[in-house]
Amino acid sequence: MRDLAVELAALRAAGLYRAPRTVDSAQGPVIASGGREWLNFCSNDYLGLAADARIAQALATAAARRGCGSGAAHLVCGHSAEHAALEEELAAFTGRPRALLFSTGYLANLGVLAALAGRGDSVLEDRLNHASLLDGGRLSGARLSRYAHADAEALEAKLAVAGGERIVVTDGVFSMDGDVAPLPALADACRRHAAWLVVDDAHGFGALGPQGRGSLALHGLDAEAVPVVIGTLGKAFGTSGAFVAGSAELIEYLIQKARPYIYTTASSPALAAATRASLRIVQAEDWRRARLAALIARFRAGAEQLGFGAQLLPSTTPIQPIVIGTAEDALAAAQRLADRGIWVTAIRPPTVPAGSARLRVTLSAAHTDAQLDRLLDALAAALPAPA
Predict the structure, then answer these.
(1) N or C: which terminus of the chain carries fewer CB neighbours within 10 A?
(2) Where do the structural domains in the chain lie, given as residue ranges?
(3) Active-site residue, selected from the candidate residues 130, 158, 235, 367
(4) pTM for this model (two decimals)
């Protein structure tokens, strides 16, 4: 029998031990935890909607009318009118005929890939894809191959020798690096080799593109170029859950074949109502994306001025990683920020490759200029002076 205590001790010794910290407030630029306030620069609440009063009111109103629980899986009796309306609205938002709700983004990715691929097929994934996409590829039973990060030529070389049904999978925005996938080049390669292109735009929807329609809209790509798009609702939308959008045939197929959809209790109908309210705000309030873009530019300019340009990864998204190196050094840097009341998470292996542990700074449209300047001052004091 494995000695779990020994393995846990080894994780601690390597600086890889993880533990949740309890938050005692609503999400926002300032949060409460452990009896004190923290300036929060590690949330994925990119548009500042997680605590929006309008969304909370929509949740409360729907809960009073429809209750909290859905009661069953979608295919039993858990699919409410709120779920159905949200799916229609998400389909319109993505410019696709239909959409299908999943309880989490992890389940959506597992469900899509295990349904579309099987033994004898090929799943080709970006090397830096989210763990859920890699796990979905493994779960499918297909031959899983990983191509060099954001390298369409490397993908094309693998497509040329891949067998069976070929499914190419990429994040739209990479969650730990913050860069955007070269989607037009990937779509061209898929078209030449008659391959499916699946894009998980979890960190793009809401934050990027006209009306927040994501990285596909940013590149002007339509449903023909990208037949399968996946999004999560717990980031820029400020609620929870996920969806897949595509053709009517794709959605019908997933309803029949995607086990995480078939065998999971549907999310709360009140949550669906709250997400409908959020979706309206995401599309209508362009000032949130404009504010976010201004903060990103301000942060990058400030970090460059401090001399951290070489450590700051090239990102135009709200995800602004500063590479530190070892897990121990990243933890120490995060602790020095914490000593100054700044909450920034140290990201360590296996989430990122060994030697590239980092501070993952994330920005929200709700941050003020003064809060951002406080972060920059803290970084100047907490990080070693650049060589």
Answers:
(1) N
(2) 22-47+285-382, 53-284
(3) 235
(4) 0.95
